[in-house]
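Example 3.2
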Amino acid sequence: MAGLNLLPWREKAREENKKQFFVLVGGSLLLAAAAVFGAHQYMQYAIEHQEQRNQYLSTQIAELDKQIKEIEQLDATRQALLDRMQVIEDLQSTRPAIVHLFDEMVNALPKGMYLLHLKQDGTKVELEGKAESYARVSSYMNRLDASPWLSSSNLNVISTKKEGAEDEALVLRDFKLDVTQLLRQTQENVDAEPSKPNKKPEGGK
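Structure, written as tokens:
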């Protein structure tokens, strides 16, 4: 049997294998490059999308901060208005107390006694004056305590002093006392206050 020369066939098969190998390698490289490119594009898109979301959130947060500041300013304005209304209400409610204070000071003052000085610090009223006797000072304090607009009278100083000529000297007592002003009448004081008779109209029977 004559021998067959298989070298050309083997060379040809080897060349075919090389071509297939390079084709596979090239295809793999192309696929890998495409995959890398696709992943890069996807990541870039994801980053841009996240940046857009972050920008949107930042804008919304800034808008909310602005609204919160406006609400805080409105709350501050509202509180300022409420404070002013409270001050006005307090002034209106305590305004009659000043009138009643002087009325009670005068009406409670007994004969043989007069005031020289009056000082008010909040609801505390300090009085200085002269009286002909200790009894008149005591009577004055009792009348102040009985007033629906005053309470808690307290005698601080009382001293004796002669005034006038020696033969006609008048013995007077200098006194200092303080009393608490009631800005509003309590129901107990209102009930205790004697009711004033209604005046009949002129010409009435």
